[in-house]
Amino acid sequence: MEGAATPETGRRTRAALAEIPARLDRLRVTPLQPVTNLRELSPALPPSYLSPAPSPDELCIQQRGRKRQPVTWSPDIDTKRNSTFHSTIRTPPKNSPGRTSPPKLGVTLRSTPRKRLLLGETERIPLTPEKIDFSDLSTPQKFKITSPIKGTPPVKRFRLDKTVEEFRGPIDVALKGLSPTQLVNMIKRITQHHPEIEQEIRREMPTPDLAPLEEKLSYLKSNIFKSLPTSRLTSKTDSPAFSRASTHLAAFKKCLIEQGKILIDSQQWESVVKYVFLAWSYVRATPVWDNQPHNVHRKQCFKALINFCMTSLKKGSLNKDILIDTQDKLQDLVADSEEVQSCIKLIQGRLQDYL
């Protein structure tokens, strides 16, 4: 039969199984002892199965392994002193040529823990100011600091105003380029050298011109109204409109107060009263806001003008006609501010003196 096993087949199988242990022993490699020739231990292996012996460079690379940073690392402690590949030479600090750093006093170079432990108690001498020798200390010129006690600081020289050449053109053209302070100082010097000219200047001195002041107030008032919304569907006196005009309101108030202070300082009392009525009309024309706290700029302007009027009435010697005219005009301003009554009472007291 085809499927029955013959005695010859059984013998072949047993022979193949018996050869397996012998062949396995031939494939086994034992690297426990130094091997000089792998071919002697495994002569049955083909040359392609044998790897060449590693080179000395490969052995060094395998022994070195990966560089690892120690946990407790310090630049002053040589933790890699056992490594043959670690260089113990440190890079010197950079120092640009031609530049010398000043010596530092009382600074000791930091030593390693081993060196600090080897130091004895006798070598540890405390550093005190008495034991420091400052005789050989040389400081570079640019780092030298002068003491304010030993030497006085250099006096700053102010450039003196050079004498300007005499102006050959018309005098009125030259005066236009001078500031108010320059004009005041020039006239003051002239009157000191020539006292007789002072009386003539007083007679020819005109009253202050209020037209430039009014022009400035008119310009700032127009800025207030230009900042308001132009749409017919929105209100021009609500909070959003005030937020847009608040900056211009502050500028208007500042200008009004500064102009009044200039007239007060000049002691032109009649012009101060005229300025009060002129500026009052511009303040009255400013918007009245729906929210009452927003009208604080308007109230402060009225109060400043009333103070200017009170100062001119107290310090100025106004004649009777001006006092009566001022009283009549102040009666129309009571509706804007109740504080105007104080000015009216002061005028009435002055008019009693003329009776």
From TrEMBL:
GO terms for cellular component: nuclear membrane. Its main location: nucleus. One of its GO terms (biological process) is nuclear protein quality control by the ubiquitin-proteasome system. It is found in: Nucleus. One of its GO terms (molecular function) is proteasome binding. InterPro entries: Cut8/Sts1_fam, Cut8/Sts1_sf. The keyword Nucleotidyltransferase does not apply. The keyword Coiled coil does not apply. Residues 64-108 are annotated as: Disordered. Keywords: Nucleus. PANTHER family: FI02826P (PTHR28032:SF1). Belongs to the cut8/STS1 family. This is Tethering factor for nuclear proteasome STS1. It comes from Papilio xuthus.
